[in-house]
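Below is how a single chain appears once it has passed through the pipeline. First comes the sequence as given, then the structure the pipeline wrote out for it. We keep one example in the README because the format questions we get most often are answered faster by looking than by reading.
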Amino acid sequence: RFYGIDAVEGKEMRLVSLAADSHRRGLLTHASILAVTSNPTRTSPVKRGLFILENLLGTPPPPAPPDVPSLEEAAPKRKLSDLSMREALELHRREPLCNSCHARFDPLGLAIEGYNAIGQWLPDADKLDTSGQLITGEPFADINELSQRIATDRRTDFLRCLTEKMLTFAIGRGIEYYDAPAVDAIVQSGGSDAGLKTLVTAVINSVPFQMCRTDGLTEN
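Resulting structure:
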């Protein structure tokens, strides 16, 4: 009912086929991610765009400068409800210092603006302008095209980001500069078509996972 998918009865897990024109596909339209990247009362293209940069493309922007006003403070003379989210963010980007970062993640977050703060598809979502382009120049019309861009044109970036996060979890520490050869080898292990099973196996076989540093340790 939450996703608007009919003819699903019972509580057991099962495979559900989606229509070709479905608004659900992949991680970026899953309610858990859409909800956690929203504010309590409204969507947040900023948080959603940052999620994509940090967790899918591995290209986080620099930290925000101090004393940056909130979106609500950026439009004090006009109620935020009178502006579209795209218009409100344009006000927020008037300062060149803000625009340099927001140009990276705002278009990505606006691509998902058709989903509300808890991840449900909005009735008038088709009327929204969700087009944009990656900072590397690839255009997209909506979230489906953005997902496709990440899965194809930026697939290597995605695989590297996923590899670094998997390796961080596996070895219990952050990635250091000397881990770069191991990360490169894992990314290249299955070529551009590498699946999750291939990456997990490559992480297990990697030097950082197989070898243990003993700096400062003594025998009991």
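The radius of gyration is 21 Å.

See the next section for the split statistics.
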